[in-house]
Prior knowledge:
The protein is an alpha+beta fold. Helices cover 27% and strands 41% of the residues. It is built from three helices and seven strands; from the N terminus they run βααββββββα. It is globular.
Amino acid sequence: MARYTTTIPVPTDPEATFAYLARFSTTEEWDPGIVEATDLDGGAPRVGSRYRVVALAAGRRSELVYEIVDLGAPHRVVLHADNGRFASHDVITCEARPDGGTLVHYDAELTLGGIARLVDPLLGLAFRRIGDKAAAGLGTTLEAKAAAGFDDAGAAA
């Protein structure tokens, strides 16, 4: 198992930040390792909402379907995906900052399945690099969205 945790200060308010991140199809906008992300169910994020995410790593495409398994709007969303080769469990929380911005806490666990577990010790190093790129992308994207303005659905106005 590999784990990646980070806290990212962003200028957007907690409600708009949460609305944006809970709709997990937005990962394509901020995570450079994601080449495709689709909302499979439509509507507002809720427990059971599913998102098809395609990642590109080491030249290989990997598809996962993430499902919201816990939702504590407007501050916490928990997503889980498992495609047999690996499973991902992500917890995202949004904490208000005194200046009106948000601290995004991102906690992700990646577990390999089958024979791939033999390379589990190496997974942590790769996961850290991937996570750092995604965190940087999230910060940059939310700064741009703050400059453009968010509407009440968490999308750029």
